[in-house]
Hints:
The complex is a heterodimer.
Chain A: H1 2-5, H2 14-25, H3 36-46, H4 53-63, H5 67-76, E1 88-93, H6 96-100, H7 103-114, E2 120-121, E3 127-132, E4 144-146, E5 149-151, H8 156-165
Chain B: H1 22-27, H2 33-38, H3 42-52, H4 64-69, E1 80-85, H5 94-101, H6 103-117, E2 121-126, H7 131-146, E3 162-167, H8 177-184, E4 208-212, H9 213-225, H10 227-232, E5 234-235, E6 238-239, E7 241-248, E8 254-259, H11 264-271, E9 282-286, E10 295-296, H12 297-302, H13 307-312, E11 321-326, H14 331-345, H15 351-368, H16 376-387, H17 395-409, H18 411-420
Parallel strand pairs in B: 1-2, 1-4, 2-3, 7-11
Antiparallel strand pairs in B: 5-6, 7-8, 9-10, 9-11
Helix pairs in contact in B: 3-6, 5-7, 6-9, 14-15, 14-17, 15-16, 15-17, 16-17, 17-18
Bound molecules: flavin mononucleotide, iron/sulfur cluster and FE2/S2 (inorganic) cluster.
Iron/sulfur cluster binds next to helix 15 and helix 17 of chain B.
Amino acid sequence: MEQELNDNAPRFSPEALARTEEIFKRYPPEHREAALMPILHLAQREFGGWLSPEALDYVARFMKLAPIRVHEVASFYTMYNLKRVGRYHIQVCTNISCWLCGSDAIVEALRARLGIGFGQTSADGRFTLAEVECLGACVNAPMLQINDDYHENLTPEKVVGIIDQLP
Amino acid sequence: MNQSAPIQIVFRNIHKADSHTLAVYLAGGGYKAVVRALARTPEEVIEEVKKSGIRGRGGAGFPAGIKWSFIPRVSHRPKYLVCNADEGEPGTCKDRDILRYDPHRLIEGMIIAGHAVGAERGYIYIRGEFFHESQRVEAAIRDAYAKGYLGENIFGKGIRFDLAIHLGGGAYVCGEETALLESLEGKKGQPRVKPPFPANVGLWGGPTVINNVETLASIPDIIEHGGAWYASLGVEKSTGTKIFSVSGHVNRPGNHEVAMGIPLKTLLETHAGGVRGGWDNLKGVIPGGSSSPILTRAACETVTMDYDSIAKAGSMLGSGAVIVLDRSVCVVRAIARLSRFYRHESCGQCTPCREGTGWLSQIMDRLEAGGGQRGDIELLEELCGNISGKTICALGDAAAMPVAGAIRAFREEFVHHVAHGRCMVE
Ligand SMILES: Cc1cc2nc3c(=O)[nH]c(=O)nc-3n(C[C@H](O)[C@H](O)[C@H](O)COP(=O)(O)O)c2cc1C
Ligand code: SF4
Ligand code: FES
């Protein structure tokens, strides 16, 4: 994690730049700023899973938009992490269907195993635990998301197994 | 016809191996309907969809053919078609299965819809958490371009239709169609004041149709077999099939596609494996996603899954998310969780919703925690009245309805919470 603590000016890699070209093609050329959300998603992937103030400024310059426009959008949507998150961002759904199917026990198991609560990151920087609203997998409740992946039909035992197997 | 037999239209393919691939979709007769549609005039296609009677599957239930007919034929601004794949209403998870298991059905439906309304560009707005699903859809779009089904000369007919995805950022309100448009334009997802409606002033000011994934994925079959055939399924005013996401306390939770009008009891007992602990263990059902008022067991005995029957029972079909609660559940606690959700998701631009959802959540939490005060129930009712119908978008109503509905159906549980500082069931 050390090299991430020292944020050198972020910039897109050549591969990411190629990806931005693909993204811009989705929108009419006169509506280039529609690409802001996908570009922010890309930036978050590129720059270690979160968007630092420097990353947001970089995106603003890249998009030729006022920084406030970019901050406004990045702060409106929950998926843009404006604080550093651990290598594994564990997002547990506690909404109605998951709650009915035992998400309380899932949360307890995670708390016990990781030693952290919602909104916290483990001291080694590996895990961030977050409570989230319905993720659209309700018939396979309870469920959680780790980075891009859904884990469904969980039990407390299964959750501990999943955590312990993470590389 | 037998209303309770399983019937698959939208889900026709999803149990096949590699159902998401173009090869499997084509082998199952895919992309035939669009060729038929392109041979007909836009007016004829709209007529067929009107005849089918299909109503929007995203929640509001507006007839799709009529919505399409609102799009002006001639427009000086480009017209757009937008698919709503934001799928955020708690309990709802049907569109995800279409996206990941049958993306070509959606794409075919969108090409047909694009032709019908004269849109040359379409977007699929997918909730950001559906990352793997979005990759499936992107791959399917690439394959469709490679075949010439999308692009500047689709099916060699000299018509243009471009299609792309747009990933959301995790905000429930962006499922509301005008918030979705703002988000698609690269802004905060705050709903627009209507009128003007998107059919006249939508994406980048152009006439825009917004339809749910399931609505659009039903279109190929409507064209293939005819609107009259589709209308013969289901019941009057609620035609065709609907996918119900059955979650909570049933033995076999899942997405079940059935003809509209099926008795709720049959849906639960036959298709979803029965209520956990047996029918008598049922407390209530939230029949149409978290915004719809809860039904008591008595209502569940007789209600059928169509717009009119559920409305008569005091609730809504909504997105078709059927959330089942058995007798171990404290209704106050369940609704308090939903109130917290709406408070979190309010976009904050109108006072009744921003302040009201905060108050609702605070009072529900206080009741749940045993700190309920005399007059709280009446205060909740008053708050619901002050939110409903007084906001820019329907999120305000969506926050109020579950609270008002639960007080109507389970008032004694609320009273018990106030009087004894704790729950009747736990
Ligand atoms: C707060 C709110 C959230 C909504 N979320 C969704 C959603 O996730 N998916 C959806 O298709 N429609 C959603 N809707 C309904 C849409 O505004 C719109 O009616 C629908 O996409 C139209 O498509 P349809 O006519 O095919 O149903 C939502 C509405 C509101 C007020
Ligand atoms: S009702 Fe709520 S979510 Fe809708 S526009 Fe008003 S504040 Fe925003
Ligand atoms: S309620 Fe948890 S995924 Fe929908």
